[in-house]
Amino acid sequence: MKEAIFHPEARAEMRDSFDFYEARLDGLGLRFLSAVEQTAERISIHPEAGAPLAGEFRKRIVPGFPYNIIYRVWEDYIYLVAVAHHHRHPGYWRERPDRR
């Protein structure tokens, strides 16, 4: 199992989405956070299970929500580059540095 580290902007996307869902329905934001955390844990256990993207990137769907976690596997850790909505600005995260 490798440590999964969130890019600062991916963490901000997660917070913004939490706020959005929590404003819609009390507790929905917490369900979103839980789903993201469980997906990040699955990525750290089985990083190769994510669908390949351009270059060395992969993605895993966040169950129950229209989001993917975009990540790259390095030798000693996994860098979670984005918590990306399925239909908003595809590929925007490609401009982010993929290393901490």
Provide a descriptive summary of the structure in words:
There is one protein chain. This protein has 100 residues and is α+β, with helices and mostly antiparallel strands. The two termini are 19 Å apart. The chain is globular, with a radius of gyration of 13 Å. The protein has a five-stranded mixed β-sheet with strand order 1-5-4-3-2. It contains two helices and five strands.
Terminal-residue CA separation: 19 Å
Count, helices: 2
CATH topology: YaeB-like fold
The CATH architecture term is: 2-Layer Sandwich
Helix content: 25-40%
What's this model, at a glance?
By secondary structure, the chain is α+β, with helices and mostly antiparallel strands. The protein is 35% helix and 28% strand. It starts with a strand and ends in a 15-residue tail after the last strand.
Comma- or semicolon-separated keywords:
alpha+beta; five-stranded mixed beta sheet; globular
Q: Layout of helices and strands, plus pairs?
A:
Elements: E1 3-6, H1 8-24, H2 28-45, E2 51-52, E3 57-62, E4 67-73, E5 77-85
Parallel strand pairs: 1-5
Antiparallel strand pairs: 2-3, 3-4, 4-5
